[in-house]
Amino acid sequence: SRMEFDGRESLAMGTKASWISFEKGSFSDVTIEEKKREDEKTPQRRCLCCRGNGKKVDLLRFVVVDGVICFDLRKKLPGRGYYVCAQRHCIEKAFANGFKRVLKRDPSSLGSDAEAFIASVVLPGLRKRYTELLQSGYASHQLLIGSDSVEEAAKSDALGCYILATDASESTKKKYRLNAQRKGLPCVGLFDRAFYGQLFGKSDKVVLGWLRGSLCESFMPIEAAIRRLEGIREDNEMASDEGEG
Question: How many CA atoms lie within 13 A of 32 on its CB side?
């Protein structure tokens, strides 16, 4: 037996979710009390390893299929789900003893280790989902491409998130990070301009943005999970540092 993520589930794109790192409470039109009530309504789950409670959308879900632990990328597979924080140390603990409790056998029989599992199963699955959501957003006109359309949406308060290519110029990064800070919006991006351009059959793209809505909300936990597992610093943190300097 070995660990794997199950790719058999449907590619439905409209599932509502919440953000991992960037909370709606930063929006000026959402009060602390409203945010608290919203969080209370969000489904919670407990991590198999650290036993901490967190939003269901923030955690990775695993199920046992024919005696094999499967990474349930879209959280749709039947059966009891086992949730683990999207953090390397929690996945490492899952391999050390968490999954042993689930499978009732030595986890060494799984034929992998935490690092190999993250590299060969979790991250490829998350990147696939990341790409799917971007393509779905573009097809449904919820993802904006190009600085003009993104800035127009920001002016009308319709923007939910900025996305910048990792190889954007420093001046472009500074401009949009500061804009994001002022508006209380996330400013993210994991790939270079060539990736974003090729994804949509276009020339290189540096500036993209999500309109507020379910796809944007589904996208943010995936972005944040990839960042955490790859150890990528969040752009909003960097913008804060720049402002302090």
Answer: 0
CATH number at residue 175: 3.30.1330.30
| 17/111 same-domain check | yes
Residues 105 and 199 in one domain: no
Distance CA 29, CA 25 (A): 8
Is the model more confident about 48 or about 175?
175
DSSP string over 116-169: HHIIIIIHHHHHHHHHHHHHHHHHTT-EEESHHHHHHHHHTT-EEEEEE-TT--
Domain total of the chain: 2
The distance of Cα 224 from the centroid of its chain, to the nearest Å, equals 4
User: Residue 201: what are its φ and ψ, rounded to 5°?
Assistant: 65, 35
- Domain end (from 81, 110, 127): 127
Confidence (pTM) = 0.77
* Same domain membership, residue 159 and residue 94: no
Contacts of 37 (CB under 8 A, 6+ apart): none
pLDDT in tens, 55-82: 888 999 998 887 777 899 999 999 888 8
Distance CA 146, CA 208 (A): 6
